[in-house]
Amino acid sequence: MVLVNILALAIAYGWAVFASDTLDSSYSTGLSRLEKIESMYAWEGFVYDIESCRSTYEMTQDFNEMKARGARVVITFEFCGTGADVGYYDDVITAAGNAEISIIPLAWTLPIHAVGQSYGPNDTFLIKSVPRIEAVTQAVINNPKPVLAIAIGDEPLYDDDAGSPAALASYINQVRHNLSIAGLDIPLSISDLAYGWQSSGSITPVADAVDFFMVNNFPYFAFDATTGGNASSSWNDFIQDIEYFQSIANGRPILVTQTGWPTNEDEFAPNSPDIVASVPSSEGYWNLLDSFCQDYFKSMNIGWMWRSWEDDIDGWGVKYLNGSDKWHWNARTEC
Ligand SMILES: *[C@@H]1O[C@H](CO)[C@@H](O)[C@H](O)[C@H]1NC(C)=O
Ligand SMILES: *[C@@H]1O[C@H](CO)[C@@H](O)[C@H](O)[C@H]1NC(C)=O
Ligand SMILES: *[C@@H]1O[C@H](CO)[C@@H](O)[C@H](O)[C@H]1NC(C)=O
Ligand SMILES: *[C@@H]1O[C@H](CO)[C@@H](O)[C@H](O)[C@H]1NC(C)=O
Q1: Which of 83, 129, 210, 330 has the fewest CB atoms within 10 Å, measured from its CB?
Q2: Residue pLDDT, tens place only, 136-152
Q3: In this structure, which residue's CA is closest to atom 3 in ligand 1?
Q4: Would you indicate the residue range of the signal peptide (predicted)?
Q5: Which atom of ligand 4 is nearest the CA belonging to 322?
């Protein structure tokens, strides 16, 4: 009995230590979350669309399957309901904890859904987006252990969600302040395109406010894009964007939180007349990234995450909505 109690105490104590922040970085002992991000390279995981409001049970199943196939990290995309429900982010984080996969909850700062909606008078940053940032922050405070980092917006500079980079930065700093009151030090960033940063004017406040750089990198949208697996277009475009981020990162870590190549052009139209959106083209891009595991991602210490898990982002999944693989995907997690 005594032994059992001591064991229980040890476990409880161990968990308390883990939960008490800087040293627990969702499932890697001895490293802070930021150090863990810095150490990551190669394929890391998936972008996961939460618009269909899957249950904790369903999300746990998805995360278990991703993990069984090598994924270590998931970033959310879109939002469930109004996106301002702390309870739903609690569910997402709980599911990640169940599967022991690291989660990057993303606060959706575009006031509307990305596609097929027009703006109404209430679709403003203050009315729609700020409550989502607050909800994500609260859910992370409720259950920080599975959380690797927080994304404040998907392409918030590209879409100018907050009205100015300075306004966006002030919300990032507010999240940091609230986390720190809760005793947490969780890396913050925005998930954006090189073009988003390049086209936004005075980006210094945002560049100063982020702890690392989450990169949306999509050679599919390039003007010279052809097939996903074409190294001379896709790969060149990919590394050009990374070089831009390296130029503003000042040594801070870089993680490609969103990259991919769709199997159709339905949700996001391309810019190149020679584009090929098909299963072989998508597979070719996946394998192209994997082929640079050693020569690029490892030497640069950069991880990449695929958009998306399933086709709820139409065409972008490694799986159809019925759950079957589009091709037999796998990628190295070490090299
Ligand atoms: C905007 O929000 C107000 C206050 O909640 C509500 O009364 C109004 O119906 C909303 N307008 C639209 C167009 O949704
Ligand atoms: C930070 O905490 C304050 C005080 O509880 C709250 O009013 C504010 O909405 C919070 N902001 C965020 C981004 O969580
Ligand atoms: C690969 O991309 C290059 C540069 O855009 C282009 O010239 C070439 O035709 C492409 N090859 C194929 C097979 O599409
Ligand atoms: C799933 O959907 C795809 C695309 O519609 C189809 O080709 C495939 O046969 C389906 N798989 C199953 C198991 O139904």
Answers
A1: 330
A2: 999 999 999 999 999 99
A3: 122
A4: 1-16
A5: 1
Residues in the ligand 3 pocket, defined by CB under 6 Å:
224, 226-227, 230, 232-233
Going from the Cα of 142 to the center of ligand 2, the distance in angstroms, rounded, reads 14
Question: Any residues with Cβ below 6 Å from ligand 1, and which?
Answer: 120-122
Q: For residue range 179-193, what is the model confidence (pLDDT) as tens digits?
A: 999 999 999 999 999
Helix boundaries (H) for the chain: 2-19, 33-39, 56-68, 86-99, 130-142, 165-181, 194-198, 204-209, 236-249, 279-291, 299-300
If you search the block for the tokens 């469930």, which residue do you land on? 80
Q: Are 121 and 167 in contact (CB under 8 A)?
A: no
- Please name every residue paired with 46 in a beta bridge, in sequence order, or none if there are none: 74, 306
β-sheet bridge partners, residue 77: 49
Q: What is the pLDDT of residue 125?
A: 97
Residue 173 beta carbon below 6 angstroms from any ligand 2 atom? no
